[in-house]
Amino acid sequence: MLYDIATRALVITLKAPAGEGKTTTEVQAMTGIPIRTINSIYRRAIQRGFNPT
User: Fold this and answer.
1) Those residues with Cβ within 8 angstroms of residue 12's Cβ, 6 or more apart along the chain or in another chain
2) Rounded distance, CA 24 to CA 29, Å?
3) So what's the pLDDT on residue 53?
4) Dihedrals φ, ψ of 34, to 5°?
């Protein structure tokens, strides 16, 4: 399933240590997005230059 940019931004913000710093499991519980997808969204953001600090 594809997620819109706002949803992807939410996942990145929640997982980033400088933001909320939630675990993948916590993000999954809050959003209902599968863990594998959350990890993929976050990994892609880092590959594209996102600095999580």
Assistant:
1) 41, 42, 45, 50
2) 9
3) 85
4) -60, 145
CB 39 within 8 A of CB 12: no
Low pLDDT (below 50) residues in the chain: none
Q: Which residues contact 47 (CB under 8 A, 6 or more apart)?
A: none
Which residue's structure tokens are 């993929």?
40
Matching residue, tokens 């939630």: 22
Q: Which amino acid is at 37?
A: T
Report the phi/psi class of residue 32: left, alpha or beta, with left for phi > 0 and alpha for psi in -120 to 50: left
Tokens of 14: 């929640």
Query: Residue 15, CB half-sphere, CA atoms under 13 Å: how many?
Result: 25
pTM of the model: 0.90
